[in-house]
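Figure S4 source data
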Amino acid sequence: MMLEDLMIHGGWPHWSGPARIEHDTPLVPQAVATAVWEEAGAWLGEELPREWRTRLRERAEALYARNPRVRRRLRSPGNGGRDWLWTFMRHWLAALLWQQRPDLHARLPGAFNTGHPLPPKPTAPQRPRAATDTQIDRLVYGLYGLTQDEIKLVESNR
């Protein structure tokens, strides 16, 4: 079975040898793996398994050691190798989520599966101020004896 087939069908290569990417390039796979792991965990609002960081690094090292095309990509000039590693680590993390936490994977945008960065987290829609809120504010302003200038100051800080 080819390495790519093994990976597509759920196998994860393990690399127990010395870190070669760091010796051959300015890239630090563990740092990229940690950043991708933190990005997804923060976006999902969940702590992801810490060992996934190691698995992402091991996968990068295994592919680097066995695949000349991967070595060329990671050694590409400028930021090309860095960007490629980030993209694939996101993709690999999406695969881990799909395999082991499908509930979390379902919450991710589809573009994360292909290595795209996560978009800003959508914020909850703000509810409009109800008329009762305004009435309560006026009563409180009156109780504290606020002047019009003080009321403007309070309302401008909302």
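Figure S5 source data
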Amino acid sequence: MIYEFTVVLAGHDVMTTDMAEALYVGGCDDGHPWSSKGVAAISFDREADSLESAIRSAVADVQKAGYTVHHVEIESSSPLLTADG
């Protein structure tokens, strides 16, 4: 299943080209890096067995790229959050 969520980076307010490249090389090739209004983040469409596995692997990849995660935002359309479960 594919899970949608956003990882917000700590200590960065702009996503630079170098940051995006490091994230891609670090394993975040299924994410879209962006920044807006003082927030740098990467939005993921990650395939995994569970939302928890998807988030854990994305956080590990962000850390592997040399960045720290501030928090994770889960999209309201995530399969885990639907009424039919």
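Residues 2-75 form a domain with the Alpha-Beta Plaits fold (CATH 3.30.70.100). The radius of gyration is 12 Å.
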